[in-house]
Design a protein that fits this description.
membrane; alpha/beta; transmembrane; seven-stranded mixed β-sheet
Length: 319
């Protein structure tokens, strides 16, 4: 058997060593050669008995042919030897920024604005005239990046009640920019939402979060600037990639655990136009390297980027 082959050679080598000793052939050079031979044969034996040990295999953290790879300290087991860095590798041809809004309306809302005739009579009594709530939604990073990039299209992952989207709409309006903001959120919140936000009503198990977001957008007269996709970030980003929708400025602020943030950043980065900027919130939290920060730092390391902190926000770039 193959696993017995190195052991047999080692045994034969030991006999040769004994023969050398009996015949007084041992000299310093012979000692050295025999020592090396024994060590190498022992190494081969270990490799042959452990089929998962592949000493010349490199585990790439990228899906491209780039030489920028990171070797994993502990290679995955054979059962788990899959590429966790594989995301959709090819997007559709980019469409012009001025066509993005209509493309979303056609593909998601059957060509009609979701704000049309909003709110419906059965929804209106459940909404507050204005209910704005966010975390870090008016930080200096928004103004800094909008002034720098002057984006035609902004993509936001994680919208909640629209505080940061409305703030960005106001900032672009002040600069005289015709910017389209695309908000991606499933508008389901989290299991503790009904307890924490009792004023956001629930009907048949469905929160009124999306409708309250829409009400806020209407209240701030931002319906032409803000459009949305009420789906999970993963499915929406993959679909936008296929459709060729790209952004000059992308904010990642949806799931805050490592796996959600890692997935969102990887998928969102594919939609970033040349010269654009991707950024997000919650870089400094109690989760530390178990959450967003770990995902951001890993992505930066893999792609040769640097991380710049701006308050609680992170910004990725070459700087």
């Amino acid at each position: 058997m193959m696993t017995d082959f190195p052991a047999a050679i080692i045994a034969a080598t030991r006999k040769k060593i004994s023969a050398f000793l009996r015949r007084d052939f041992i000299k310093p050079a012979a000692y050295f050669i025999l020592l090396l031979l024994t060590y190498y044969l022992g190494y081969l034996s270990a490799v042959s008995k452990n089929p998962l040990c592949e000493p010349h295999r490199h585990y790439s953290t990228t899906t491209t042919t780039s030489t920028n790879t990171t070797n994993m300290i502990n290679p995955p087991s054979q059962a788990a030897a899959v590429d966790h860095y594989q995301f959709q590798t090819r997007c559709g041809d980019p469409i012009p920024s001025q066509l993005i809004r209509q493309s979303i309306l056609n593909r998601v809302f059957n060509g009609t604005s979701p704000y049309h005739a909003f709110p419906q009579p059965h929804i209106k009594p459940l909404l507050r005239q204005q209910r704005i709530k966010g975390w870090g939604s008016t930080g200096a990073v928004f103004k800094n990046l909008i002034h720098k990039v002057r984006p035609k299209t902004i993509i936001e992952l994680g919208t909640f009640l629209g505080a940061s989207a409305i703030h960005m709409a106001e900032l672009t309006r002040q600069l005289g920019l015709d910017t389209q903001i695309l908000c991606i959120d499933d508008f389901r919140g989290w299991p503790g939402l009904p307890t924490q936000f009792r004023d956001i009503k629930m009907v048949n198990g469905d929160t009124m979060l999306m409708y309250q977001f829409m009400q806020n957008v209407v209240q701030f007269n931002a319906t032409e600037a803000i459009i949305f996709m009420p789906f999970s970030t993963g499915s929406a980003l993959e679909t936008l990639c296929e459709w060729g929708v790209t952004g000059d400025l992308i904010e990642v602020d949806a799931g805050h655990d490592f796996h959600s943030a890692w997935s969102d950043i990887n998928r969102a980065y594919k939609l970033l136009r040349p010269g654009g900027v991707i950024f997000g919130h919650d870089y400094f939290t109690v989760a530390d390297n178990r959450g967003v920060r770990r995902a951001v730092n890993m992505f930066a390391r893999v792609n040769g980027l640097r991380v710049k902190a701006d308050g609680q926000h992170w910004v990725l770039g070459s700087f």
